[in-house]
Design goal:
42% of the residues lie in helices and 15% in strands. The protein is of the alpha/beta class. The chain has one domain: Undecaprenyl pyrophosphate synthetase, CATH 3.40.1180.10. α4 links the parallel β3 and β4. The chain binds 3-methylbut-3-enyl trihydrogen diphosphate (2 copies) and magnesium ion.
């Protein structure tokens, strides 16, 4: 993955429910199949040499779904974390999380802490799970952190710049998203990485997440390499 640099791919994993319903299955069966797709894509990205992969697994807005679906998703998360601890270590994948983690049930939170600590600084690839995440909430919490420092007298308002702001976000230490992929046919961001995706290339596919394969991932990356990223400048004259 060189050519045009591609450091950070972020995926909005959408369409689990519709995939299941079209097959007469429950929405939770769709989420279970979605977790299987996660395992495949993570392995594939690691093998391809990607450095940063962020997966939108659960939004703050998703808390308002029916209680049994939320409960099922939290159980799937715990199951995933339990099973991944050894595997991530073996592949030198470090896990991190962004979002309001304090809202997760105790068991999921404990497992998350455990796997994050066990895989810290492994360096091969950083896998970031966006859990109980919303881009606006992340920005508001960053503002709150900075306001606290100003109130304590350790930061002056005029010293706040983009870098300092970015360093206060949950996702600090991860470069901006280069490519955002959304599966499941909707063409919107749904509150994902509002700050970090400022100049991301956006790739939408109708394929529902449970069917998204490593080959589909490669297609998105090939599309990305065909883009001209100008970042507000003019194209170089040929
Ligand atoms: C994405 O699939 C997974 C989560 C939001 C947790 P959905 O559950 O949104 O599936 P659709 O969009 O209803 O098909
Ligand atoms: C976005 O999907 C959140 C995740 C993929 C986790 P949603 O299905 O929740 O978003 P909307 O409702 O299509 O905007
Ligand atoms: Mg959806």
């Amino acid at each position: 993955m060189d050519k045009q640099s591609l450091r950070h791919v972020a995926i909005i994993m959408d369409g689990n429910g519709r995939w299941a319903q079209a097959r007469g299955l429950t929405r939770l069966a769709g989420h279970r199949q979605g977790a299987a797709a996660v395992r495949k894509i993570v392995t594939h990205c690691r093998e391809a040499g990607l450095r940063h992969l962020t997966l939108y697994a659960f939004s703050i807005e998703n808390w308002a779904r029916p209680a049994f679906e939320v409960k099922g998703l939290m159980e799937l998360l715990a199951e995933f974390l339990l099973e991944q601890e050894e595997r991530l270590g073996r592949h030198r994948i470090e896990l991190s999380a962004i979002g309001d983690i304090s809202r997760l049930p105790a068991r999921a939170r404990e497992l998350l802490d455990r796997v994050v600590n066990a895989t810290r600084s492994l360096g091969g690839m950083r896998l970031t799970l966006a859990l109980s995440y919303s881009g606006r909430d992340e920005i508001v919490r960053a503002a709150r952190r900075l306001a606290r420092r100003v109130a304590e007298g350790t930061l002056r308002p005029n010293d706040i710049d983009e870098q300092i702001f970015e360093d206060s976000l949950d996702a600090r230490g991860t470069p901006p998203a280069d490519l955002v992929i959304r599966t499941g046919s909707e063409r919107r961001l749904s509150n994902f990485l509002l700050w970090q995706a400022a100049y991301a290339e956006l790739y939408f596919t109708d394929q529902p997440w449970p069917e998204f394969s490593p080959e589909d991932f490669d297609r998105a990356v090939a599309w990305y390499h065909g883009r001209k990223r100008t970042f507000g400048l003019v194209e170089a004259m040929g």
